Amino acid sequence: MKELELKHVYKDYKLANKEKYTALTDINISFDKGELVSIIGESGSGKSTLMNLIGGLDSDYQGIINIGGKDLKNFKDKQLDDYRKKKIGFVFQSFNLIPHLSVLDNVTIPLTLSNIKESEKNEKATNLLTKLGLKEHIKKKPTQLSGGQKQRVAIARALINDPDIILADEPTGALDSSTTSQILNILKEIADDGKLVIMVTHSDKVAQISSRVVEISDGKIVRDEKRENYIKNTEKHLIETAKENTKNKKEGHLSFFSALKLSIHNMWASKTKNFLMAFGVSISLIAMIIMLSFGSGLTGYISALAEDYSNPNYVTISKSGKDRDGNPIEDNAASMFLPKMFEESEISEITNDLNSQLEQQNNDFRIISDGDDINITYGFSMMTMMSGNISYDPKSGNLDDIKTESIMYTYTTPPYYDENNLITKTGHISGENEIMLSSAVLKLIDVEDPEEVIGKKVTLNIDFKLSDTTLSIKKDVSISAIVDVSAFASMMVMYVDYDYLNDCVKEAQSNASISPTGLKPSLLFIHTDSEETTDFLNNYISNNRKDLSGSIEEQLSSMFSEMMSTFSIALAIISGISLIVALIMITVVLYMSVSERTREIGVLKSIGARKKDIRLIFSTESLLVGVLSGLTGIIFSLIIGGLLALVLKSLIGFAPISMLWYYFVGALVISVLISVLAGLYPSSKAAKLDPVESLRHE
Ligand code: ADP
Ligand code: MG
After folding, report:
1. Which comes out higher in pLDDT, residue 322 or 374?
2. pLDDT tens-digit readout, 663-672
3. Ligand 2 is a single-atom ion; what residues have CB below 5 A from it?
4. Which of 116, 339, 341, 593 lies in disulfide reach of 520, CB 3.0 to 4.6 Å?
5. pTM for this one?
6. Closest CA to 422 of 434, 404, 408
7. How far is CA 159 from CA 63, 79, 152, 197, in A?
8. Ligand 1 mutation pick, 45, 53, 692, 698, max ligand atoms within 8 A of CB
């Protein structure tokens, strides 16, 4: 039985417009083991076409190709892959080594595709490379080798699986004459060891050393000549080396680990491109992590603020600026900053409503606004951030730096404030001719020890813009304490006693010849008998009295949660868009990488890589891109978040950034998911590439 036999083989290339070009016509030829066959013929005569058919790279032909008695036509994909991997060794004119792999890794690639143990395949390849005189070069990259060395590496790769047939398509075409004879000697040795070597060559001189010369012209065999004076060398050399260890091995397929190794090599070879891509993808992750951290930081801050302030024994009521159905009362923008004050009639309406609700609930607690056991007290708060209508003139000591516009809030001290809210040990809650300041003011004037400012005299200038009149209060007061309530700690707040402020207003009214009616409250504090009563009243108000709201802190808190939900929608849209952009970007880059590596894919296929293997290599690479992008995103988020926290801390005294571990995990998972998704199309495109066309690819 012949090793290889072709019967009536025709090959047509399909051209456009349903035309075809017949590259091979009625080829009938057979080959034996141990032959060194030269195929000669002019360029375009069909030599490579023939080699591709024999090598199982091209299955689109008519006729019969018998390999060891089996018809190649009947081979399933898997058998064909196996045939290319084990039965055939390819050597090309342009070497076709994989540039980003070392010499050793290039030679072991066919074994890697069979999942042979690392140590074993390296030993085998090293032995083979040593025989081929490349021992010192195994760590080099292909570009660091001369042409002859490259071709020897390619021969080692072709031999590593101990194939029966070596197909060499113009193996010396790119070499000078002395290296040419080196390579020819090696090929002759291989044939002498009992392999069938079929070599395509242009040159008659090269053909001289062959045992047989076959000439093709216009797709037909025109000469087939055995050479009588061909001397066989019976010494065994290379093949013995290749045969070692190949017996009784359990064969697998390309493992994930090996694919990972290949991908890392390849990505490292174009590290700038890959890092830039990872960075591009990571930008959307960074934006996402930072925005989420900011959101949760603010929410946490605000809810801590509300919690800090809520005293379970007090119900705080203010006007919401809406009517009872929750519709906003027509208001101009400026009035947003005017205090919303209660008229006496409104206070009694609210008191009556709440008392009747309590009665219906059989709750014994009642709001009492007259007599000795009065349990409703008044408060007042005014935002002065925009109007700057409270001026605060320092008169002595270190307080020169307090600027008028720095005070954001004037607030009458709530009835439940006590020593626990003070950070000054010697201070006390302010009364007549006194004010307290929030600890943020200390930072403004660069005072570390709050005790330093106790007792300092300052001038209090309040311009009360109350709807149609403006009252000017000017008083000499002293600082009685520094208040530290975490929520307001970072805001510039001035605390004044309600009764004292009321007296000041009356005095100013008299000075302006207005009847001294005094201050109207903008806050009502109800001192309840229990937490249950507090909860009941708060619930009733928030569900049924849209015209009322709670304390300033509660208002801030609900305002923020509204802002946060808007923020979340915006965040979702932005991240969605940027992730789609990232997805497209990765797809494009991977797609380009596939076309850049078309030839490499062809080589891998010619040495028996299955579609699955190619897909695995490219998917692993997209997975790596995802991991790399995710890690880049995480590192940059940490850096940017940290810097942002530092800047905010020094600017506003606190940093509402809370980076939760699951944001990072989430970012990594998302980045891996989109990368893998982006890799699907390019990897399947790579897997489907036609090996012959890929090898032809320039
Ligand atoms: P050789 O290797 O002898 O130089 P080839 O086998 O590469 O020649 O090509 C034989 C003929 O087939 C040439 O005329 C070439 O143009 C043609 N040919 C090769 N590949 C294709 C293809 N994919 N489509 C159409 N024609 C092709
Ligand atoms: Mg050719």
Report:
1. 374
2. 999 999 999 9
3. 48
4. 341
5. 0.69
6. 434
7. 29, 19, 10, 11
8. 45
